[in-house]
User: Fold this.
Amino acid sequence: MGNLRDKYCIVGVGETEYSRNSGRTQRALGVEALRAAMGDAGLGPQDVNGMLSYHSNDSVPSPVLAHDLGLRLDFYMDCSGGGSSIEALIGIAMGVIEAGMCHTVAIYRAMNGYTFARIGGTPTAGGRAPVTDVSGPALESVSYGLTSAAQSFHFSFTRHMYEYGTTNEQLAQVKVVHSRHASNNPKALYKQRVTVADVLNSRWIVKPGCHLLDCCVETDNATCIIVTTAERARHLRKRPIYIMSVAGRVSNPFTSHHYQMDPITRHAGYYASRILWRNAGVEPEDIQLTGAYDAFTFTPILMLEGFGFCQPGEGGAYVSSGIIELGGKRPNNTSGGQLCEGYTHGMNLVIENVRQLRHQADDSCPNWEKGEHTYDYSEGGCRQVKDVELAANLGWAMPATTSALVLRR
Amino acid sequence: MAEYKGMNIFVAPNDHEHLGLFKAARQHKLVVQKCADCGRLRGHPGRACPFCTSLNWDWQEVSGKGTIYSYEIVTQATRPAFRDWVPYPVVLVELDEQRQVPWQGGLEGHTVSLRMAGNLVKADNPLEREDEERVAIGQRVKVVFVDLDDELGLVQWALSGEPPEHTPWRAPV
Assistant:
């Protein structure tokens, strides 16, 4: 099939603040993020004629936001999904535009992920009613207290520790590095730098792979990304960021029954990487910046292995080597990611890479908007990756399902 | 509808696959689906055979003996129903009947085994969780059953007392 490399661009990004008490509706959050992304791109209501969103019955539909901001749509679709949706939806936006159905698509995620609907189903005051009925496939998991993401993914985590000797200290390194990045991100929810000991001394959520600080931070927020053609992108406000390749959602053979099939430590990146690198025309070694979905400290490890940044079993060593830190060979999640900046089902990780490729990471450098950075990565300083040209986002839904994206300046 | 740990366990009358499993469990039998065409066993109830696409299957009673392939200890329950049960173990049990079958002739190095998830509980009381120190990969287990009501039962697992399949491994935490 046709390769659309460099024919489409991300032209606008926007978000609300990341908080645990937004005090307003998902609709209010969504409007704010969409309006911010349109402003970033320099687009008015008449310039955006497509919308996509993803949700877990916890969001606001596209037509409501379109109404609020006066958009008339030639295309919209609200899709069910969480992690790894955004990369795939960017690919869908390209396909919809390629099909002549519209020319500019805004993709958003709006969620009160702490105060309304928590991912693991923990009841919230004033939020969604707790689910007590168990039926269908949930009979085989929820009946056993296997509900949250940390619980659902854990058989792969434990097995990885058993087979490869991956340690809690290695996992903690992911949080340590992302917290250093977050300390240079004024909008991050958790800006404080932490140590390996801080992670290991935080309370257990699920043994043996998830202390509290191994888990991402449930967040209230909305995020938005706007995609259009390279031709249109050239006339907009910000430097276009070119989409080289998209894969998603890609699955291992048994998908939701992943644990029947060995190796259960094999992430779906094993399959997605073939599509991703072929269509992009680059290799993992060429990538200068990654956004590997950090729902937990373990998830980047499995994905970096799956997508070929290191060999199976080497992920723990990879994240402990300095490679993933600012100033290292290939930093990961320079915003602090979902462990520190906030949890938005992956969209903030793509937004960060867009800003990085513009050389406009919104750090503490006084003139970051002009692309002027100190490259001093000490606490409270810069977080711009010097001269970055190529970035990859690796999305996680579960061990057996992924999406991914390669972007260039 | 049966109540278990504050949850309503509802197996829909048209959900024939789950109904068979839960009804057999009430009779203290562990059954799995066996494809009537290719003969493969399935660890999860499903409508078709993921090995050959056949829609024909029969219930097959299995021994309920297996080995812990992976595990986790949940120390923070997300559902209120489980809050008084932490830390509770969840185990992935590989049953003896079907192990490491090459997937589609060995495609991509995949193999398929017959595995079921459940809690590791005390052999003499399936409502009581096993101590986390006793949970390890390689330990041998046997099926036990929780009676949910007159019609439905829940499959659980307990240490069988057999020698471990290999040196047991549990994370040093």
